[in-house]
């Protein structure tokens, strides 16, 4: 399953404190431009995002997923947080 591969790649790359992957693919099946790849929302909490801009964080995630972005993943929503940013949202 694609979500499991995404999880494995992101866990290896970021050693996250939290990882959540939501598969929204069924809601988007057959829409214009989708050549069969899935739609996913990823939340990652990792110290590796410290002192990184939002763009840099997203680039790191895309790099970790590599060629999956060309076929298996059609759309990816990323919420990349540091541990301190995550704890602020939970207080």
TrEMBL record:
<protein>
    <submittedName>
        <fullName>Cell division protein BolA</fullName>
    </submittedName>
</protein>
<keyword id="KW-0132">Cell division</keyword>
<dbReference type="GO" id="GO:0016226">
    <property type="term" value="P:iron-sulfur cluster assembly"/>
</dbReference>
<dbReference type="InterPro" id="IPR036065">
    <property type="entry name" value="BolA-like_sf"/>
</dbReference>
<comment type="similarity">
    <text>Belongs to the BolA/IbaG family.</text>
</comment>
<dbReference type="GO" id="GO:0051301">
    <property type="term" value="P:cell division"/>
</dbReference>
<dbReference type="Pfam" id="PF01722">
    <property type="entry name" value="BolA"/>
</dbReference>
<keyword id="KW-0131">Cell cycle</keyword>
<dbReference type="InterPro" id="IPR002634">
    <property type="entry name" value="BolA"/>
</dbReference>
